[in-house]
Amino acid sequence: MKSNFNLRTFLTENKLTSNSKLVKEADFAPAPNSDVMDANGEDFNVATAFKKARVDMSKPVSVRYMSGHAQYATVKVNEMSAEDAIKKIEAERQEVRKGFEDDGREVPSDLHGYEFDNYTTFEEDLPEGHEYKLSYYLGGDYTYVITQEKAEVSEADGKGHDEEIISYIADTYIQNAKDGDRAYAEFRDLNIRDAVQDVVGILQDPKHPLHGETKKEYQIVSRDKARGLF
């Protein structure tokens, strides 16, 4: 059976081009098993996995490719756009599927999949300033590890706020502004880094019109993250 999947069409229809920011749930129809901690490679495509891992599509990612086992493993690291990383890994996923589908077989459930918690990579092996996002593994012999530069929130301004949550709220406000919500107009033309700083400022300013809502949103997302839902 020939695969009709067109990555370019998927990226365009689901707003996963380089002009997008953090990929959000609303950008996709619900994906089967997208609420599980890790998932089989047949559960959903790579673009959805990037969404689940909250990869910032406006920033490059580091792709660490490992093949083989233990001390005999070959490791290659390349930096590329998030969109190019999706193309590269989705092509691998489709190739895996094609070999089985051409023979009229189902893809084995344990052959390939995604890991959203870091089971495979030591912190010291991550590029400086990066955080783990996700891995795509194939048959236990090949693994793509995706990392990305951490969102910047200065220690002086952050006052202990979770950088990932702040980034999520900032991206949400940018999208709200672009959707025409005047309450978020100040975020319309901001890049994600500037928006992060603005969100921190809002949290610190009780007189800001968005202070109450932002504080509530931060608390909600913090609870979701603690429950493993974020």
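Above is the first protein from milestone M3; the second protein from the same milestone is given next.
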Amino acid sequence: MKNNFYKIGIWFLFIVFAILVWWRPDLGSGDLFSDMYFHLATAKNFAEANGPLTWGFWESLPLGRAQTYPPLYHILLAFLFKLGIEVQLIEKIAITVALTGGGLLFVFGLAKIFDYRIAFFSLLFPFLSIYFWRISAMVIPATLVLFLIPWLFYMLKNQKWFALGALLTFIFYLHRFLPFFVIAALFLFCLIYQRKDIKWFLLSLGGAFLAYFPWLFHIFKDGKQYIPYLNGGEFLLPAQKRIWVAPVFDFLFLSGIVFYLKS
């Protein structure tokens, strides 16, 4: 009975939230920063080319540059462009679906691991801050990766190895950096609490990594070619060095796995 009360409360909050997001077209846009413009431009290129591109032809960069950002989100947006929907409406649809749909996935994932009472009350805290949702709307692929974390832990905990591998592949193709930090957390959890399942976890991870390898190879092969066209922009690391962060992290993480298996 109590679970039904909290479940109804979750649905009510998200219906109200979806309405508010739909009528706030500025939620994911801002004068300071937003990834949405890049994602929309890339998706438009995909739609015009009738498929994913590994090289972007930008009006501001006549020579173009390597398109190394994982393509899944752009493919989904490209379908909306192919339907002839205006770009402003695509932005509203993307933000509304990502925040409400992704948020529901996150909350029901928490409910799977714990219960609906905990999921409901953990939902109240982000609802109190417009800044949380505004930042989430600005970086939707990263937000979706974070929203899927409870399901990754649920699949690991319940030994659903095929589903875990499929979802890991999904997040690999959503964001270039975050998945590797999520995998490190899953690996540590498995090492500490489910040590007997470590080989099954590594098999799931290996399958996902194999599925992602073509795009990772493209990053190594073509990614360095756009460095000369970058124009400043310092965030944690110089722009010329940021492109190597994920491959270096991959190498260190995989080296740690090999060391563990040999020990």
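Note on the second protein: The chain is about 70% helix and 5% strand.
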